[in-house]
Every structure is written in C-alpha cells, then in structure tokens.
Amino acid sequence: MNSNMLSQEEIDALLNDDADENNTDENVLTEEEIDALGEIGNISMGTAATTLFTLLGQKVTITTPEVSMTTMKKLTQQYPMPFVAVDVSYKIGLEGSNVLMLKTDDVKVITDLMMGGDGTNIDREISDMDLSAVSEAMNQMVGSSSTSMSEMFAKKIDIDPPEAYKVQLDENIDDIELFNAEDDIVKISFKMVIGDLVDSEIMQLLPKEFAKELINGLLNSENKDEDNINNSDDGINSNIDSYEKVESNNYNIMEEKSGSKRSKDGKVNVQKFEFNNFDNGQNTVYNESIDLIQDIPIEITVELGRTTKKISEILEYGPGTIIELNKLVGEPLDIKANGRAIAKGEVVVIDDNFGVRITDIVNSSKRIKKL
C-alpha cells in the first residue's frame, strides 16, 4: 500500500513543476493584457487582410486571435514542419521587432497568385523568388496594419522592409535570432483563409518586453481619450451660460433686422418683409461661341493595339521579344482626343515620319468615353 503513495520529495517536485508552468502560461500576462494584445492583433490583421485581398484578387480573412505565452523550445516540439519566417522591425513610434510565421505551402499559394497563377502550383521547393514575393506582400500588409496602429496609439508608426527566410525549428532552434530557446515569448495565432485555396494559421511571435510596450501604448492612448472626453464635458458645462447669453443677443438682433419690435407688454409688432427688386429691364447676352476655350491644347493619340500579360511572362521579356497586339494588319486604328475615341485612321509614312490618315469620324452618340 505504501509503495503506491508518493514521497514528500515527489510531491514537492510536482508542485514546483505546476508552479513553473503557471508562471509561464498565466502569470506573465494578465487577462486585461491578453485582451489588449488580441484587440491590437484583430484590428491590425483585419487591415492586413484587406491589403492581401488587393494583391491576390482572392477573398482573404484573418480572424480569431489567440494569445498565449510560450518558448522557442516548446514551439520546436509543437511545429516540426518547415516554416517561412518574416522579420518585422519597427523604426518609428515603436522600438522592437516581431516575427510572422507562415507555412511553406501557404507561401507558395500566395506567391503563385501574385505571379498571375491560380494558386495551385505548390508541388515545388521554396525559391528565392517566393521569399522575395512574400517579403513584399508582408511589407504591404504590415505597412497597412501600422497605419491602423498609428490611429490606435495616436502617433506615427512605421516599419523597416521585412526580411523572409525559411526555417526548420526542430532541426535548428537558432534559425530565428530574435529569440533564445528558453526566453518567454508571446504567440498570437490567427486563422487565415484565402478563397478556397488556404484554410490555415499564421503566427505572430513577440518578445515579452515588446508585447508589454504594445499593451502600454494602447492603454495609455485609451486613458488620454477618456481625459479628453472629461475635459470637453467640463468645457461644455462652463460655457453654457455664455452660450445662452449669445443666443439671447442673436435673437434680439434678428428681431431688429426683420423689422419686428417687441413692445413693453411683450407683444410683437410684425411688418411685411419686402424683397429688393433686381430686375433692371435689360437682358444680358453672353458670348456663346467657343472663342474662350479654343486655344486650350488637346492631346491627340493613336492607339496601335493592346494586350494583357501576366507578371511571369513580362519577367521573361528581353531584347528581340515580339509582343502580339489585338489589332489585325490593315485594321483601322483608334484616334483619341484626351483619351476619348473621335475617329478611325490608317498608318502612313511622311518622309521619315509616321503619320495617320483619318478614314472615319466616330459618331458622337457612339463614342467611347474613356478606355
């Protein structure tokens, strides 16, 4: 029976382990601080999702922030798969850095969409072009989120260009230089959905000190707003008397201007208001010709043709590349005035210069406003 009971040393060890775990997961951040970080992340990533939608042409949703404390050592056990890490450093308004962690397949989908693909080309290795493209995407995303943070903190906030690189946490824990293996760090996880291509998670890792700075910045800005509201209320109350006096004076002035006067017994004498006569019996004739604007220059352009190409195709251009346009040989060209089609024509050569001979004038009812 005694063999199944724990010794005092074993009980003390278990209690110490529980205390260490509680110190790491619960006592470092209060519930109020966790809510503050969640609010910052929710607003920032909401703006970033809008920016990513513009880049990819796909509906993007980044929601449900979950804030927790962890260490790099624990992350290596939880996430053994390869990631793409993006270092983001703040240069104005905040002093600190954080790391965004994206799964490699998610990065492949994002970069494929940015290059004009359909987001399905993920059976490949991460390349330098992928890292460069996702760095630019994160630059615009975090840049837009910095604008939202500027409004939240009531001060200008800006970042340095982010740097993306591939990491394998379970193989080399030192890949992310910002953190030591045993340091307490804040992990904010977001659910990320991109169209029907990605339903995944993106993580934001922050040093504990930088997380505290964000929390203090948000709480201080909220306190300033409350003080401003209280001061404005006091100002309104202190100005009520003077406001009423001004209104009373304005009422008396209006009475005098309208011709009505209040008698001693309180009755008002009303007089008929008379309008001034502006009719002098002369009809003014204005110049209805276009003489006033006939010297304004108008840009005349001739459009040879158009085409649409993907970024990946444009990157392959070089000297000697032939670009096919949507016009057939001998087809009339569009002649435009300030961007609006006014006529059709054909190319001619005058001495050593190109010219265009007008073959047809576009009817005003059929003109295209502006392509």
Structure description:
It contains 8 helices and 13 strands. With 371 residues, it is α+β, with helices and mostly antiparallel strands. It has 2 domains: 8-223, CheC-like (Chemotaxis protein chec); 300-366, Roll (Surface presentation of antigens (SPOA)), CATH 2.30.330. The strands form 3 sheets. Strands 1, 2, 3, 4, 5, 6 and 7 form a 7-stranded antiparallel beta sheet that branches. Mean pLDDT is 77; it is low at 18-27.
Structural key phrases:
seven-stranded antiparallel β-sheet, 8 helices, 371 residues, Surface presentation of antigens (SPOA), alpha+beta, four-stranded antiparallel β-sheet, 2 domains, Chemotaxis protein chec, flat
What's this model, at a glance?
The protein has 371 residues and is an alpha+beta fold.
Return the CATH architecture of the largest domain.
3-Layer(aba) Sandwich
| Cα distance spanning the termini | 90 Å
Strand segment tally = 13
CATH superfamily of the largest domain: CheC-like
CATH topology of the largest domain: Chemotaxis protein chec
What is the percentage of strand-forming residues?
15-25%
Helix content: 25-40%
H and E string: HHEHEEHHEEEEHHEEEHEEE
CATH class categorisation of the largest domain: Alpha Beta
Our Rg estimate from Cα atoms comes to 35 Å
Helical/strand content category: alpha+beta
- Determine the number of helices (DSSP H or I, runs of at least 4 residues): 8
SSE arrangement:
Blueprint: H1 8-25, H2 31-56, E1 60-70, H3 72-78, E2 83-92, E3 96-103, H4 104-114, H5 128-153, E4 158-159, E5 163-167, E6 185-194, E7 198-207, H6 208-238, H7 240-258, E8 261-262, E9 268-269, E10 300-303, H8 311-314, E11 333-337, E12 340-350, E13 353-361
Antiparallel strand pairs: 1-6, 2-3, 2-4, 2-5, 3-7, 6-7, 8-9, 10-11, 11-12, 12-13
